[in-house]
């Protein structure tokens, strides 16, 4: 069975990627891995390890499970697993793709432009450039707003 990694940032952009991935998985008879990476900058200093991290990961896992439940309602035949971790998003997505031996990555994009993109970078672009497998980049229907 083929495996598709869905990089989900718990926004509408991640939801768009997940919806596309469900359609792709259904047509390929593939399973889905919903994967969220929480950047370390979102965790207060001194709390990157220990109880705070554990609680944060539990909350993120619960959010991914909600997404998975919505996707299962849409496609009950699909096998969907969830994983949340802490780290830098692009390298973590690429490492998980290798570890899980996925066949495909689906990710959303916020379609930032100009200085915002230069300063913040683009996770999707980093994944495209360095992924060991093909990558599908999506955005919500109707644009990036």
Structure description:
With 145 residues, the chain is an alpha/beta fold. The chain has a single domain, classed as HUPs (Rossmann fold, 3-Layer(aba) Sandwich). Helix content is 47%, strand content 21%. The protein has a 5-stranded parallel β-sheet with strand order 3-2-1-4-5, sandwiched between helices. Strand 2 (30-38), helix 2 (51-74) and strand 3 (80-86) form a beta-alpha-beta unit. Helix 3 (89-100) runs parallel beside helix 5 (123-130). The longest helix has 24 residues, at 51-74. The protein is globular.
Gist of the model:
This protein has helices at residues 12-28, 51-74, 89-100, 114-120, 123-130, and strands spanning 2-7, 30-38, 80-86, 104-108, 135-138. By secondary structure, it is of the alpha/beta class.
Task: Give the SSE layout.
Layout: E1 2-7, H1 12-28, E2 30-38, H2 51-74, E3 80-86, H3 89-100, E4 104-108, H4 114-120, H5 123-130, E5 135-138
Parallel strand pairs: 1-2, 1-4, 2-3, 4-5
Helix pairs in contact: 3-5
Question: Notable features of this structure?
Answer:
five-stranded parallel β-sheet, 145 residues, Rossmann fold, alpha/beta
Do you know the CATH topology? Rossmann fold
Order of helices and strands: EHEHEHEHHE
Task: Give helix % range.
Answer: 40-55%
Describe the oligomeric state of these chains in a short phrase.
Answer: single chain
Strand percentage lies at 15-25%
What structural class do you assign from the helix and strand content? alpha/beta
Characterize the overall form: globular
Q: How does CATH name the architecture?
A: 3-Layer(aba) Sandwich
Overall number of strands: 5
Count, helices: 5
Rg on CA atoms, Å: 15 Å
CATH class: Alpha Beta
**Biggest beta-sheet profile:** 5 strands, parallel
Unreliably modeled segments: 115-120
The count of domains is 1
Strand order of the largest sheet: 3-2-1-4-5
CATH level-four homologous superfamily name: HUPs
Distance between the termini: 36 Å
């Amino acid at each position: 069975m083929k495996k598709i990694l869905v990089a989900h940032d718990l926004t509408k952009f991640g939801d768009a990627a997940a919806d596309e991935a469900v359609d792709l998985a259904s047509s390929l008879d593939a399973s889905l891995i919903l994967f969220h990476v929480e950047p370390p900058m979102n965790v207060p200093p001194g709390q990157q390890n220990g109880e705070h991290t554990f609680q944060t990961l539990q909350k993120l896992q619960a959010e991914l499970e909600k997404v998975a439940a919505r996707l299962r309602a849409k496609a009950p035949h699909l096998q969907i697993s969830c994983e949340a971790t802490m780290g830098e998003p692009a390298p973590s997505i690429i490492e998980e793709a290798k570890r899980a031996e996925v066949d495909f990555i689906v990710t959303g994009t916020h379609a930032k432009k100009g200085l915002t993109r230069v300063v913040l970078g683009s996770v999707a672009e980093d994944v495209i450039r360095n992924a060991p497998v093909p990558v599908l980049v999506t955005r919500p229907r109707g644009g990036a707003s």
